[in-house]
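Supplementary Note 3. Input sequence used for the single-chain structure prediction.
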Amino acid sequence: MRTPRAFDRAFSVCVYDGVVKNLIHEFKYKDKQYLGKPLSKLLISFIKEYELPVSYIDYLIPMPLHRTKLREREFNQAQILCREIGAAIDKPLLENNLFRYRATETQASLEPHQRFLNVRGSFAVTEKQSVRGRNILLIDDVLTTGATASEAAQALKDAGANIVFVLTLAS
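The predicted structure, written as discrete structure tokens, is reproduced below.
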């Protein structure tokens, strides 16, 4: 990643390939929400094994979907993961504060340089005082170029967030 990103650090548990890629696709696109529990256990184990600095985290935030995408899919996979992680590490979730107000093309269908343009300016924070001076752990399923995570982190930082870490299942 040569281009600077707005998040402070990103962590990914697995390589986005093979069985992991298939599981994420089943979870995300084939409505197999029950996979959220075992997939979140991978994230929780990673946090503990690698001693991620979660004691400094004030809130966990799931990567939001645009309302159109949420209506199509009927669930947000990042929200499922985030709830499991929050319960396991005893950290509160800040849901529905970071939102994606502009529908974008699916990032997977775009070239890396197009992904940054696609998500530019698509996130906002509704209650800025809730993130001002806070440390955030942003949860998502996949990190490839970091464009989406960076844009979401930028919205959080513009609202006054102190540190924004990103944690994903795969990259």
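The CA atoms of residues 46 and 87 lie 15 Å apart. The chain has a mean pLDDT of 95.
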